[in-house]
Specification:
CATH topology: 10 Kd Chaperonin, Protein Cpn10, Chain O
CATH superfamily: GroES chaperonin
Shape: globular
CATH class: Mainly Beta
Helix content: under 10%
Number of helices: 1
Strand order of the largest sheet: 4-5-1-2-3-6
Oligomer: single chain
Number of strands: 6
Order of helices and strands: EHEEEEE
CATH architecture: Roll
Length: 101
């Protein structure tokens, strides 16, 4: 898995590329910006792009790795813009709730 963000986490941090938030309901109704904002700050599913050297040390298998789709705890991490002008999340490994398989 390549990391186009230009970001390399340190310590127990990981870089995630979040899945896109919904722009409309399944029925085709456009979602207002306030709803999109709330979704951005709730549970987030994303693909791990990079892990810091201390991330997931001492964890029992399966251990998340770059390329894995994971769910993280709400309100965790920091949104940051990468070199490619895309938005990414930097979070500590402890906030990974589940591997999504």
């Amino acid at each position: 898995m390549t990391n186009p963000s230009g970001l390399q986490p340190v310590g127990k941090k990981i870089i995630l590329k979040p899945e896109a938030t919904r722009q409309e309901t399944p029925g085709g109704i456009a979602l207002p910006d306030t709803v999109k904002f709330d979704e951005k700050h709730s549970f987030v599913n994303g693909v791990i792009l990079a892990v810091g050297g201390g991330a997931f040390k001492g964890y029992s298998p399966p251990v998340p790795k770059p390329g894995d789709l994971v769910r993280i705890h709400p309100h965790s991490g920091e949104w940051i813009t990468g070199r490619d002008e895309e938005e990414y999340l930097i979070v500590e490994d402890q906030y990974v709730e589940a591997l999504l398989i």
